[in-house]
Write a structure and sequence with these properties.
By secondary structure, the chain is α+β, with helices and mostly antiparallel strands. About 60% of the residues lie in helices and about 10% in strands. It contains nine helices and nine strands. The strands form three sheets. A five-stranded mixed β-sheet has the order 4-6-7-9-8, with helices on one face. Strands 1-2 form a two-stranded antiparallel ribbon. Strands 3-5 form a two-stranded antiparallel ribbon. A hairpin with a 3-residue loop joins strand 8 and strand 9. Helix 1 (about 1-60) runs antiparallel to helix 5, helix 2 (about 70-95) crosses helix 5 (about 165-235) and helix 5 (about 165-235) runs antiparallel to helix 6.
């Protein structure tokens, strides 16, 4: 039985890991699509800006003439910026953001900026100085005409391109700002993806902890039940057969319904009732067993097997075959809260617990409560000379 539970636990963990990988890949793909959509919107605005500017200029001057040549010239000026963006976004930026190759990244950026600068300085249209007549001073004869043509002009009257002009410097600064913005956007989406992965990992870790605690409860609970049936086989075979029927119902609940995050309160009540019926078979009239549940059972959901450890602990330590004893269990619901109480006999030879939490099963229950209802539950243990009582107050119909 324990081996079966362990195998089920392994299967559940593998399925959870596969689901986690699929969710992470899906979120990464969504983040990548959002990033590409951001770039598309930015470049669309840059393409629309010349159209809007030309339209405003045409209407502000009172003329309806729309100069498409200026729009095309503006679009043509965006081509080197777009090519530099493509190289940076899909080749250079991943070196910095994903691979941490800073040296390669900065070397690539310097190469892109250098090529852009060379293109910008050599592709601008040459400046042309038109024909000029003699100046007024030359006409009056006050100033003699120059003996040599202007040295900075070519024979054809074109000014040779400067190494770097003001317009070129502005274009390079705009390019550097554009690359920095591209890198910042990539870092932003990378950080957001990492935060989403961290949140998903924390959620999966919480599910793993809850699954681990549930599967710790199952073998511990079933082991004690099997021991009880084993003791009945030689004493009362009919009672042992009835115990097997009750045990099959418990196993069906533990193996199937307990896989869900929550179950209906009715199913949890039926489980506790089946366990009590299983325990009654081996008890005599000296043991008073009482299970008080409102009729009908209130609607709502609770974590599966949440009360099993309390009930098991009550029958394990609160029942005596030599003297009268009792186990009283009650479930009540009011104003969106569920109150579970369990009281059993406490004998003089019982060792007091240090923290009032009992053994392994009760410690697991407290850990599950801390994970499921952080700061929103109340668990109290009371020990007297003749009674050990547990009272648990949790929210009903909570989203776990």
């Amino acid at each position: 039985m324990v081996l079966l539970i362990k195998n089920l636990k392994s299967d559940v963990l593998l399925l959870t890991l596969h689901r986690f990988e699929r969710e992470v890949m899906s979120k990464s793909s969504l983040s990548s699509r959002q990033e590409n959509l951001t770039y598309a919107m930015i470049w669309l605005l840059l393409l629309v800006a010349p159209l809007l500017s030309e339209w405003l200029a045409a209407h502000s001057s009172g003329e309806s003439l729309f100069e498409w040549s200026r729009v095309v010239r503006a679009w043509r000026g965006l081509i080197p910026f777009f090519l530099a963006f493509v190289v940076h976004n899909w080749l250079l930026a991943p070196l910095m953001v994903y691979r941490r190759r800073n040296a390669y990244y900065f070397a690539g950026v310097l190469a892109v900026v250098a090529l852009f600068s060379v293109y910008q300085c050599t592709s601008r249209p040459p400046m042309h100085r038109g024909p000029q007549g003699p100046s007024p001073q030359e006409l009056r004869g006050d100033v003699p005409p120059p003996r040599h043509p202007e040295p900075h002009l070519r024979p054809d009257g074109h000014r040779p391109p400067a190494v770097m002009g003001e317009h070129d410097l502005v274009a390079i600064i705009v390019l550097v700002l554009m690359l920095g913005m591209n890198l910042g956007i990539k870092f932003y989406f990378r950080q957001r993806t990492n935060e989403q992965k961290l949140d998903e990992l924390e959620r999966q870790n919480l599910e793993h902890q809850l699954a681990y605690l549930r599967y710790q409860v199952n073998p511990h609970f079933l082991m004690n039940t099997l021991n009880n049936i084993h003791a009945l086989i030689d004493i009362d075979s009919e009672s042992a057969q009835a115990s097997v029927v009750e045990l099959s119902r418990l196993l069906r609940y533990a193996l199937y319904d307990a896989e869900r995050p929550t179950v209906s309160l009715q199913k949890e009540v039926d489980f506790v009732g089946n366990y009590i019926a299983l325990m009654r078979i081996r008890l005599d009239d000296q043991v008073e067993v009482r299970f008080d549940v409102p009729s009908p059972v209130p609607s709502g959901n609770v974590p599966p097997l949440l009360f099993a450890s309390f009930v098991e602990n009550a029958f394990k330590h609160g029942v005596s075959y030599q003297q009268p004893s009792f186990v009283h269990i009650a479930i009540a619901a009011a104003e969106g809260r569920l109150v579970f109480s369990c009281a059993n006999s406490r004998f003089a030879d019982m060792k007091p617990t240090d923290d009032g939490a009992g053994g392994l099963g009760l410690r697991n229950v407290r850990q599950r409560l801390d994970l499921l209802f952080p700061g929103n539950y109340w668990l109290d243990f009371q020990e007297t000379s003749g009674t050990y009582a547990v009272r648990l107050d949790i929210p009903l119909d909570s989203k776990l």
